[in-house]
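Today's session is about reading a structure prediction critically. Students often jump straight to the picture, but the first step is always the sequence itself: look for stretches that repeat, for charged clusters, for runs of hydrophobic residues. Only then move on to the predicted structure, which in these notes is written as discrete structure tokens rather than atom positions. Here is the chain we will use throughout the hour.
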Amino acid sequence: MLENMLKAAKDASYELMSKRSDIKDKALAAVALKLDSSRELIKAENVKDIEYAKSAGLSQAMIDRLILDDKRIDAMITAVNEIKAQTDPVGKVVEGYRRPNGLYITKVKVPLGVVGIIFESRPNVTIDAAALCLKSGNVSVLRGGKEAINSNKCLGRLMKDALKETGLPEAAVNIIEDTDRAVVMEMLKAKDYIDIMVPRGGDSLIKFCTEHSLIPLVKHDAGICHVFIDEWADTDMAVSIAVNAKCQRVGVCNAMETLLIHQNIASKILPLLEKAYAEYNVELRGCERTQKIIKCVSATEEDWKTEYLDYILSIKVVDGLDDAVNHINKYGSQHSESIVTENYTNSERFLDMVDAAAVYVNASTRWTDGGEFGLGAEIGISTQKLHCRGPMGADDLTTTKYRIYGSGQIK
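Below is the predicted structure for this chain, in token form.
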């Protein structure tokens, strides 16, 4: 059954790559309308997933990732419309030049083909990923986790209906309904049909895909994000950013997991943070110097390597900027890192020296998001260096092709 789906997806990719922008945008408009008119159906199917998650003992943070209420349906609709409004990356001329022999060479953007996406928990990824693929002329093959299967199936059917109504192949969007892990292995081996794989999930999923894939991967890896409060930080700003980065939504990859504080400001700011985090019942795990200033659990080496996705925060007092940068580059996952400082030299050094997809000065790591970056949505946040890094939008779902115009040149 999977092979049949993938064959149809590959065939659809050849048809879709040549479709004009207005036809793809018409389909995206139809998707947005389907989402709006099918709210009650979406929420009813989503309730089944929420009930399963509760019975399976998932944490409240994980359950929050599953919820599709009117606010999140609105957000999906907004994302689809924003993606529709973007300039189509397909056909964009990267460069063009004429050689001495008269050949005119252009380098243009073209779709990748068939994009396989493996993701966990968040059903809105179904819409975001499929819409970005459609905009960039790619076919999507989506395999979500069992905890969101009812929501994913419902959203997939709505998208297929929209494609059918607008004359595009239904196989341009594919939802794998079998949640057995063996299906993931089949996808990773399907190099004749899938052009690129995008795994989004925990360490075990990423490791599994890395070890077994015969297809190039763009990994959406762990989000071990840091905020460093420099000695030159504005206190009120530092507290606001540190609380937002951790508590605004804990079960997401761009939430802060480790807070680093310059030793010269630690005794002043840690008590303020302790009070602020107490309002959210955040469990604090601190280094020895942190424990001398506030009451907290002793942090272990494992804490610096952990993506909690929960109301837990590890805190370390560092000697200075270089110590903070070294800690981030050692333990971070190259996702999102932030410095709070009024010192321009320190901010620029932090931006230059920290190895991550997104590096901030005086802002929360929670901004690392395709929608917030003006991409409409994201396939994921790539934490690797090839072929894209950071929030992955429609433009990142393209590769290039050389188109050469001659007038009879032979060699």
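Discussion point for the tutorial: The chain has a mean pLDDT of 96.
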